[in-house]
Amino acid sequence: MGGPVPKQFLSIGGQPLVVHSLRTLQASSAIDAIVLAVPQADIAYCQSDIVEAHHFTKVIKVVAGGQERQDSVRHALAVVDNQVEIVVVHDAVRPFLTEQMLEKVVAAARTNGAAIIALPVRDTVKQVGAGHVIKRTVDRRPLWLAQTPQAFRREWLQEAHRKAEAERMASTDDAFLTEWMGRPVIVVEGNGENIKVTRPEDMVIGEAILASRQATGGEG
Fold this sequence. Notes:
By secondary structure, the protein is α/β, with parallel strands linked by helices. The protein has helices at 17-27, 43-52, 69-77, 99-112, 154-167, 174-180, 200-216; strands spanning 11-12, 15-16, 34-38, 59-64, 86-89, 114-120, 125-128, 134-138, 144-153, 186-189. It is built from seven helices and ten strands. The model has no long low-confidence stretch (mean pLDDT 94).
């Protein structure tokens, strides 16, 4: 975003993005407990002004994140109880996840070991070379855009993160690490409202999505 405030604390509809994400996780019957990874300097604020102020009773721990997203997930996994079967990873800046998404991705992970929410690519895709010259048109039929939430057998994801740290393997997401370990990952189709807020224009889109949901009284 280019500003001093971390994206997850920017407001849509008068509430920080992370609050919208946590509200859905709190309400979902598929989620039993939540570990929140945030910048070290924001732990106290998140505990008092986010978790306690909004009564997010499922949040059992607020931990310090890391330099990269991968580090933050690893730090959160370190405090997950070994009795947990399935872990779900979600980006705080995807505030429009739904309970239905969570139920479907967790069910798929229970059956198959790992699953992610994703969308099939609908635009024409071009491979571009030097000088911005199109080299070829890529077949979009097998292409999907990965999103979160993503769900995994706990031991699969913990093993993947341990190996990645030892071998200094950087990941784009947790599904990548799971694939890298040779594990199958299932795709569960989501919806277009599950945007990731990364640019100023996404805030405008987010406000529109929120207003639409409030007008219709439900999730998209």
